Amino acid sequence: ERWGCLDDNFAYIIKSIFDSKMQEAGFNPDSFLSWAKRRGKIECDAQGRRTKSKWLNGSGVRCVWLKRTENEGEFSDMDEKDALPF
After folding, report:
1. Which end of the chain is flanked by fewer CB atoms within 10 Å, N or C?
2. Residue 68: which of 38, 36, 45, 28 has the closest Cα?
3. What share of the chain is helix, strand, coil (3-state, %, to 5)?
């Protein structure tokens, strides 16, 4: 099962899989993407949509472009502004 791909800057997650996995975990994908957009955690397309096209296996696919951090995999304290809204 392929969910998307990674590079040094982004995790590219296929939108339909992102939605499915978020719902399975009990989260609203649209609410999360709104929060992530406000916090600059995702890259948006020129029209302001919360997804962008990405070429995967020779096909253009709508993906969530989740920004990766330099400290990924490390634990750190979160500022209150970075906390999820629930």
Report:
1. N
2. 36
3. 25, 30, 45
Tokens of 60: 């253009």
User: Do residues 42 and 65 make contact, with C-beta atoms less than 8 angstroms apart?
Assistant: yes
DSSP SS3 for 10 = strand
Distances (CA, A) of 5 to 2, 28, 31, 74, 79: 8, 22, 23, 21, 28
Q: Write the pLDDT tens digit of every residue in 63-75.
A: 999 999 865 555 4
CA–CA gap between residue 35 and residue 3 (Å, rounded) = 22
Taking the chain, what is the end-to-end CA distance rounded to the nearest angstrom?
Answer: 31
Pairwise CA distance, residues 52 & 64, whole Å: 7
CB-side neighbour CA atoms (13 Å) of 36: 19
